[in-house]
Amino acid sequence: MPFENFTADPSLPCSILLLAGGRGARMGGMDKGLLPWKGKPLIAHVHDVVRPFTDDLIISCNRNRERYRAYADQLVEDSQKDFPGPLAGVLAGLTVAHHPWLLILACDAPRIDTTLIRTLIDARPASCSALMVQQDGQWQPMFSLIPQTLLPALQHDWDEGERSLLRTLLKRDLVALTCAANDLRLSNFNTPDLLAGTLPTSSE
């Protein structure tokens, strides 16, 4: 068991889902979470930040399961083939999550820090609404906190053909956590140039 000495903070009963199940189209089809950055895979950077916050770390991946297994307590995959998008991974994560809240993060955002993670968890709404980062007026679905009680509603929307995580959450009193427009912690390295550092980083 790779995390046998791990003890989660009991005041933060939250499962965490790292989304690594995408097609990687802008990366030429490569598995983004396993691409190297500063000497180790992107997924390893994200894992190292979030590991202390949960005893239920879930990774959504649709390939290279054996490589991702070292970074997770649970692995899930999309119920539908051909990379249907993040909502599929979120549904799979909510289905197996051990705790009432699920924190959603992308595998290609290695600049997150413990302050951001704690802020997201501490900002949980008193209601059963989801929380999502809003940056410069734009929602950032890959930085979300979703109560497990929303699983039936999200599954219903999926069954009705909805494929956007943002659209389905907006229908249910989504709460915003505002972050600065220049907050580099929200940067996604989702193209070769961004990963190589030859373009300014962006959260979009």
Quaternary state reads single chain
Q: Percent range for helical residues?
A: 25-40%
**Could you give the distance between the termini?**
36 Å
- Write out the CATH superfamily name: Spore Coat Polysaccharide Biosynthesis Protein SpsA, Chain A
Give the secondary structure arrangement, pairings included.
Layout: E1 14-19, E2 36-37, E3 40-41, H1 42-50, E4 57-60, H2 65-68, E5 74-76, H3 86-96, E6 101-106, H4 114-122, E7 131-135, E8 138-147, H5 151-159, H6 165-170, E9 175-179, H7 192-196
Parallel strand pairs: 1-4, 1-6, 4-5, 7-9
Antiparallel strand pairs: 2-3, 6-8, 7-8
Describe the protein in words:
The protein is an alpha/beta fold and 204 residues long. It has one domain: Alpha-Beta Complex (Spore Coat Polysaccharide Biosynthesis Protein SpsA, Chain A), CATH 3.90.550. It is built from seven helices and nine strands, in the order βββαβαβαβαββααβα. The chain has helices at residues 42-50, 65-68, 86-96, 114-122, 151-159, 165-170, 192-196; strands spanning 14-19, 36-37, 40-41, 57-60, 74-76, 101-106, 131-135, 138-147, 175-179. A hairpin with a 2-residue loop joins strand 2 (36-37) and strand 3 (40-41). Helix 3 (86-96) runs antiparallel to helix 5 (151-159). It is globular and about 40 Å long. The chain starts with 13 loop residues before the first strand and ends in an 8-residue tail after the last helix. The model is unreliable at 1-10 and 198-204 (pLDDT under 50).
